[in-house]
Amino acid sequence: MKKTLIALSLALSLPTLAHAAAVAQLKAFVASTKTLSANFTQTVTGGGRQETASGTLEISRPGKFRWSYGKPYQQLIVGDGKTLWVYDQELAQVTKKSLDAALGSSPAALLAGNNAIERDYSLRETGRQGGLEWLAASPKNKENGFAAIRMGFAANQLRQMELTDSFGNVTRIAFSNLKKNPAIAASQFRFTPPAGVDVMNGD
């Protein structure tokens, strides 16, 4: 009987131990990551449609990042520490806005922002799924633009993100070839609009 009770106690404690891992891994990831580079695949599902895109990202915290979409369209998103630039090559159009306003408590702030995660998000463990430890990050600012955010970790590395917007569209981002604290040239986080493109102020 005693062995049975011990086994039962251990079994009941396992979910708690597993669930505690995701938030701890997020905090360790943020605290130990100054720069980051990775490949990503992004799938957006909603309205009965599904769109997939892929590209590369580079981050220099806080506030500098470069998201480059290569397939099926070319789009570049650059945060230079003060301004957010979005360049759509097909439309020959650039949108710029204040980086502080663009980041705020948005999902990008989790990766490229400062370390004050719990100031802007309520974190909750959601358990293990698909070999990853998952957490839910609920934005405290209701104007965030996303109704729900999930992040999956393994070995203190971010592997996947799931973002659900207020319309029910779900964006899933899977990261691969992730390198933590690589040397990244400062020029990667600078952007000058190409000649002849329309520049729009998005503030």
Automatic annotation (TrEMBL):
Q: Where is the signal peptide?
A: 1-20
Any one Gene Ontology BP term = lipoprotein transport
| Any one Pfam family match given in the protein's UniProt record, by short name | LolA
**Matches recorded under InterPro entries:** LolA/LolB/LppX, OM_lipoprot_carrier_LolA-like, OM_lipoprot_carrier_LolA_Pbac
Q: Which CDD domains match?
A: LolA
Give compartment(s). Periplasm
Entry keyword set: Chaperone, Lipoprotein, Periplasm, Protein transport, Signal, Transport
Superkingdom of the source species: Bacteria
GO cellular component, alphabetical, reads: periplasmic space
**Function in brief:** Participates in the translocation of lipoproteins from the inner membrane to the outer membrane. Only forms a complex with a lipoprotein if the residue after the N-terminal Cys is not an aspartate (The Asp acts as a targeting signal to indicate that the lipoprotein should stay in the inner membrane).
* Family per similarity comment: Belongs to the LolA family.
**Quaternary structure, from the entry:** Monomer.
Protein name per its UniProtKB record? Outer-membrane lipoprotein carrier protein
Please tell me the species this chain comes from.
Crenobacter luteus
Q: What is the lineage of its organism?
A: Bacteria, Pseudomonadati, Pseudomonadota, Betaproteobacteria, Neisseriales
